[in-house]
Specification:
The structure is a homodimer of 421-residue chains. Chain A has 421 residues and is of the alpha+beta class. Chain A contains 16 helices and twelve strands. At the A-B interface, α6, α7, α9, α12 and α13 of A face α6, α7, α9, α12 and α13 of B. Chains A, B: Its EC number is 2.7.1.100.
Chain lengths: 421, 421
């Protein structure tokens, strides 16, 4: 199959085509005619098949040469599959066990065969249902610290990092999506935008807010130019699969060398949005516990990330930055600790900047979150989103002066009580 | 010649080999046996020939697979010639007339044939001789604003910039030289360092200075990760050729995508060092005028750079950053002006950070400046360098709080009076 021209798989053609790959035929097991194949892609971009054989069930993910949701009027290159595959191999090496096991990759067919995760569900779905996952704060805090630290000049050989940077620099089209849909479109009347009726006044206010518009473009500037590490690039609660015991990160096709705090900000933004969506389930008493849980997850994620980053700084800092040789013979290591504090300060500031933007683009832009979309009452829907918009504005514009998550908890709680105005 | 394996040219072999290239044979003119060939490379890395024919004189620059100054114990890839050639073509397109005209490039032979500049001399030499060049402030301010702005996401198509970023990301070895020799070695007892006797106390103090060591590594972090634009990468007064009427920038083999203010900081640092070297010519009355001239050049360079950058921001901002569509319909353009102020603030801060480091590495590291080296009296030599070291420490550590060049003029003048202590 490898040398053929690209051809999209279907439920019907998949068994014959996949069974021509010996290692996959053996892994799945049994006669291909007996394989159960379902297409389950619920994302916007790709085909996703579950293939159940006599021995094993696997996932087959195939990119299409356009955005699936929109059709061939919006072309999107197949090479995103190449970047997804290479990002997965790097994440697996840097944070073992945090991504699905990879079985096979075919670049021409833009196809990845990987581990079928079961009984995992998408984290966003779990949070909407009010489930309190006990391990996500710790697991994703560690995932981010390890992948982001180990993919940077703090850890990698400079020549290897520069070669990798060049490789991922070709992921232009997916970066372009983020650059436009996340950082720009929400802040003016772009054609693909939409927002909930009832938000017109607030939307108008935000789009006239000079400080916000400048801050958003400052963050875009950082996104486009600061090639600090290999980021996942789309680390929201829809890119995480969970059980109570296990957390797996999927879908890194937006991966590129970008600012370290981008993934952190995007993930925390999605927890904050889940928090503001709780009010949409008014009357359900368990939702108060869910609110406390979500603020706790934000806190745990950040602190696990920060502490693991500091641990790696102290034990694995073998790259060209802040070299131990410069510091170790003096000051009992105080200079290296001072530098670490500066770096963490910047991560914090950037995280806040990116988080607010992510909250805005999910309410003002093209891609909305199910957390809010599934709130049936339109006024309640708008009320929840208004609180998130105001919170997002605050954290992005004031990112340089916000001191602690406790102060953001207080703001979130206050905004969560307000009427739509 | 193109398909042959690399072979270093000599004065003897050059005519026969170069005359095999029809466009060069025609350009130089006359019988190759009559060409006058001189080898004049006084830099550390390459061969440079002047070839004088019947019609035209040209420069032939050829890289060697090692550092010329050291020999083949320090290998350095020939591909630096490829980066030099491509940087020159981009500089020529972005700031026409500021670099030598290019006649021919042979990648395998690591060879560039270009315009012979006459009667130009190296700017550093001119400044040491006490010559006041009237046009350098304006010419180099414009050169930097135009090349740095037009090579960034403020101007280029994102896909073209990312492809170019990937191309130059392979310039690993020359970046590695800067990363080590500029940003790290000066701040600890690295093997290749040397400094003037008499500075031992101050050197020890600086290498124990925690704030300085942290600041230096913060700037290195910026250098290694912030791929903002195609920088020249080695823009000191030895990389500029001048007459009273013309200013040409040469030798961009260190070019890569880095922070916008790197070139600006390095250039201003070399003016400040020229200033502190004036005291080495004590007794020569004309040197007071030279001091005033040099501080004036710093001022003019910065302000021309800043004003031209602002002009390009207002008239050529066609890239993905701070898009006009976001701003133009509101506020009478105030948001775009506010963003410009933020960007210029960062350029200023970064410029100061890089300038101080450049001053340190020229006194504490491997590559020293003729400005200081040619001061015969050892105590005077050390006294001049001590003032530069203290000035460099101040601007790098206090880069976030320095408001104006006037305040730095006052500091420079005060340090210039001090005894060595």
């Amino acid at each position: 199959m490898k040398d053929d021209a690209f051809e999209a798989l279907t439920v019907e053609t998949l068994p014959a085509r996949l069974s021509a790959i010996p290692e996959i035929a053996t892994r799945v097991g049994g006669a291909p005619s007996g394989w159960k194949v379902r297409e389950v892609g619920d994302g916007n971009l790709n085909l996703v098949f579950i293939v159940e054989g006599a021995k094993e069930t696997v996932i087959v993910k195939q990119a299409l040469p356009y955005v699936r949701l929109v059709g061939d009027s919006w072309p999107l290159p197949l090479k995103r599959s190449f970047f997804e595959y290479h990002a997965l191999t790097r994440q697996q090496a840097r944070a073992p066990g945090t991504v699905p096991a990879l079985h096979y990759f075919d670049e021409t067919q833009a196809l990845i065969v990987m581990e079928f995760l079961s009984p995992h569900i998408i984290l966003r779905r779990a949070l909407i249902e009010g489930r309190q996952l006990p391990k996500i704060g710790r697991d994703l805090g560690l995932f981010m610290a390890r992948t982001l630290f180990r993919g940077s000049d703090l850890s990698m050989k400079a020549s290897e990092r520069k070669a990798d940077l060049a490789l991922f620099a070709d992921n232009v089209e997916l970066c372009d999506i983020t650059e436009n849909l996340v950082f720009s479109d929400p802040y003016f009347e772009a054609p693909m935008n939409r927002h909930t009726p009832g938000l017109d006044g607030l939307v108008k206010e935000l789009r006239a807010d000079r400080d916000l518009k400048v801050a958003a473009q400052r963050m875009k500037h950082a996104f486009a130019t600061r090639a600090e590490t290999l980021v996942h690039g789309d680390l929201h609660s829809g890119s995480v699969m969970v059980t109570d015991d296990e957390t797996k990160v999927i879908d890194p096709e937006f991966a590129f060398y970008g600012p370290m705090a981008f993934d952190v900000g995007m993930l925390l933004a999605n927890y904050w949005m889940a928090y503001f969506a709780q009010r949409g389930h008014e009357g359900d008493e368990s939702r108060n516990a869910m609110r406390a849980y979500l603020l706790g997850v934000v806190d745990e994620t950040w602190h696990v990330f920060r502490d693991e980053f500091a641990r790696l700084w102290r034990t694995e800092r073998n790259g060209i930055l802040y070299q131990a040789a410069l510091y170790e013979d003096q000051d009992d290591g105080l200079a290296a600790e001072q530098a670490l504090n500066h770096v963490i300060h910047d991560l914090w500031t950037d995280m806040l900047g990116f988080a607010g933007i992510e909250m805005h683009r999910r309410i003002l832009g093209l891609a909305h979150n199910a957390d809010f979309e599934e709130i049936a009452d339109e006024t309640l829907h708008a009320t929840c989103e208004a609180a998130a918009l105001k919170f997002g504005r605050h954290v992005t514009v004031n990112r340089n002066t916000i001191q602690s998550l406790a102060e953001l908890d207080a703001l979130a709680q206050a905004l969560d009580q307000r009427k739509l105005s």
